[in-house]
Design brief:
BirA Bifunctional Protein, domain 2, 41% helix, five-stranded mixed β-sheet, 16 strands, binds magnesium ion, Rossmann fold, alpha+beta, 16 helices, 2 domains, binds adenosine-5'-triphosphate, single chain
């Protein structure tokens, strides 16, 4: 016997019951994005590896160890499965001159790929919705991106998702801070762990994230970034928090929040739930004013966020707002000589009229078919036996009521169906 094949580790199947929950989630999110004026974008799953190296940064977790990259020998190209969407979205905006006639609000959704250790809330194929506001420089869109999320959570029926916020300043301010931070870390090198020592020269901001107690002590006495922020950066951030206050959106200022991607500046934020364990961040974003130029485009400001669908769907599963599964309007039962074509045509006509109809397949007694009809969740059973066929009729049973079975002429079924359905659901 040949070995049983299984899905790739960290890449999940979503079975129908859960997929219906995903569909409900996706409908809510996509309608919400449209309401806030964001338009859909679809980018390829595969990009040139150089895009992510340049956009996300060489010394980040993603580029150092999480990318699915390979050499396409047929074209002699280095390719990568996208680990996130912002780099692709900005690449596409540059390639198609999307903001030549003014700023744009865009969104995308779909799978992302990162070679991480699979665990709860962390997968190798996962899904994101991302929103990007391209070409807007002011703090108003930073606040817009944050407030729109604040309005989405209750719409999804979720509570307890809190906002963390930081101001990481301009590239120049960060460079000055970085120099002093590296000097501070070097002076305390003996107390750093291997990870922090490795990071300290390539990406010292990530050392601030360390969970190691000794490293945390060193970090606690490091010069805070806040002291390097100039008037313009402080004013921008003040503009954001003022709008959040006005909108009644609460936040916690977190000076440790740096985010795992290099392209951010000024406002960065994360939405965090305590109900998910260690993987509690459901959405992260910020401003990335240097990214257009970094990818070879004309300099332009930008800001956005990406939310992790698996983590949000996990929260939905725990909330008691699970949508009821989709039910067919009718289930068609059939038995006897010549009934198949008759039933087939009936179901076909009803579907053409916009109704959801499942036709029984696979034979069996009326009794066993009736069990299937009931199990399908359908409101109505339409029954076609030899007697109905002979008289040109259809028997109808209201599956969720105790009413006696009806008989209707075949040519009145489609016309009278809405009425029957209404009665069946009442
Ligand atoms: P984390 O700190 O959890 O690794 P991150 O900072 O790497 O997150 P981002 O790149 O900001 O994540 O991606 C935005 C969101 O996508 C995250 O907040 C999270 O909800 C989700 N996400 C990121 N990586 C994964 C993954 N491997 N599996 C599932 N969801 C993920
Ligand atoms: Mg990560």
């Amino acid at each position: 016997m040949s070995a049983k094949l299984q899905a790739v580790r960290g890449m999940n199947d979503v079975l129908p019951e859960e997929a219906e929950l995903w569909q409900g989630f996706e409908r809510t999110v996509e309608a919400w994005l449209a309401r806030w004026g964001y338009r859909p974008m679809r980018m390829p799953l595969v990009e040139h590896t150089a895009l992510f190296r340049r956009a996300i940064g060489e010394a980040t977790d993603i580029v150092e160890k999480e990318m699915y990259s390979w050499r396409d020998e047929l074209n002699d190209e280095e390719l990568t499965l996208r680990p996130e969407g912002t780099a692709s979205c900005v690449r596409a905006a540059i390639e198609h001159s999307l903001i030549y006639d003014g700023p744009k609000r865009l969104w995308y959704g779909g799978p992302m790929y990162r070679h991480e250790r699979p665990q709860k809330g962390r997968y190798r194929q996962f899904h994101q919705y991302g929103a990007e506001a391209l070409g807007f420089a002011g703090p108003d869109v930073d606040a817009e991106l944050i407030v729109m999320c604040a309005r989405l959570w209750p719409e999804l029926g979720l509570s307890g998702i809190r906002l963390e916020l930081n101001n990481i300043g301009s590239a120049e301010e960060r460079a000055r801070h970085r120099g002093d931070l590296i000097r501070h870390l070097e002076a305390n090198e003996a107390r750093l762990d291997a990870e922090a020592r490795r990071r300290m020269r390539t990406n010292p901001l990530r050392v601030l994230d360390s969970k190691h107690p000794l490293v945390q002590e060193v970090v606690a006495s490091a010069p805070p970034l806040k002291g390097y922020l100039g008037e313009a950066s402080r004013a921008h951030f003040g503009g954001v928090t003022k709008l959040l206050d006005a909108a009644g959106v609460a936040y916690a200022f977190n000076p440790r929040l740096v985010r795992g991607l290099d392209y951010y500046n000024l406002t960065v934020f994360e939405w965090v739930s305590d109900a998910l364990g260690a993987q509690g961040t459901v959405c992260g974003g910020g401003r990335y004013d240097g990214l257009f130029a970094q990818l070879g485009g004309k300099p332009a400001p930008g800001a956005g966020f990406a939310m992790g669908c698996e983590r949000l769907v996990a929260l939905l599963k725990d909330s008691n707002r699970r949508p009821s599964p989709l039910r067919p309007d009718a289930y068609v039962l059939l038995q006897g000589e010549g009934t198949l074509a008759y039933a087939f045509a009936l179901a076909d006509e009803l579907r053409a009229a916009g109704h959801a109809v499942v036709q029984h397949a696979g034979g069996g007694s009326f009794k066993s078919q009736m069990k299937k009809a009931d199990g399908s969740g359908a409101w109505l059973a339409l029954i076609v036996g030899e007697d109905e066929l002979g008289k040109g009729e259809v028997a109808v049973k209201l599956l969720r009521r105790n009413d006696p079975q009806l008989r209707i002429p075949r040519d009145q079924v489609v016309q009278g169906f809405a009425g029957l359905l209404q009665k069946a659901r009442s």
